[in-house]
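Fold Annotation — chain and its backbone
Encoding — discrete vocabulary of local shapes
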Amino acid sequence: MTKKCLIMSVVLLILLAFRSDKKAYQLFNEGGKEINYSKLLNSAKEADIILFGELHDNPIDHWLEQELTKDLYADKKENLILAAEMFEADDQITVDEYLSGAVSEKTLKDEAKLWTNFPSDYKPLLDFAKKNKLRFVAANIPRRYANMVYSRGLEKLDSINVEAAKWIAPLPIQYDSTLTCYKDIFNQAKGHGGQNLPKSQAVKDATMAYFIFKNYSPGKTLIHFNGSYHSDHHQGIEWYLRKSNPKLKILTIGSTEQDEIEDLKKENLGLADFILCTPTSMSKSYRP
């Protein structure tokens, strides 16, 4: 065998070995082109607001959230703000007290309405903010008010008292039933609950957008963690943010799962500015 043939054989074996590797994830741009993490990070550094849409039980999504946060902090330092769907607005005082060291983790768990997967998936983000003295915004509407909308409609929010209203986006809340994100919820429920079901989603989106915008200021970068469906296709939270300021530089990250992740499926094109794709066989971080 000639030297040239030997080199070609080795290259072919390397390529075949690479093709047989099992990737844990692949990043794509909005149009479905493969991109690397450095491209995502560089774009995130230029954004005012980053909406990181996760699949709540996907460990790769949670890992990348933490890695992106660390890398953004290395660049932004005290100009980085964290925010999340997973903490309700009326728990902000408790969250702040935990961040300052005034209360213990046990008190946080006793007092705040934490998700089942808080210890593995969201505590690392909260503790990163605590260690580096960063603001962490509890952005979601208290669930009792979202449930109120589901059972009685947006109009019922007019009856809550002034103190309670400060944990919700200012009333009246705009609702556009023609947005795909809300039409899909209505159709998937086959009309069960009428428009109140998508409205209960919209009031979450509106409230998260409100607290994101309230806590953002020029020169800062705010990264918000939410279920991907709250920001997919540049709707949901982003739609409400642009009502507040259409000039905001908003970057969205969407998450999806596929049996094969080498190519992005047609139905996932346009999901977000950057799309995090993981295998459907990926183990889950928790079981609801």
In short: The first strand starts at residue 26 and ends at 29. Residues 196-215 form the longest helix (20 residues). The beta strands are 26-29, 34-35, 49-54, 80-88, 136-140, 221-227, 250-258, 274-279. Residues 114 and 161 are 25 Å apart (CA to CA).
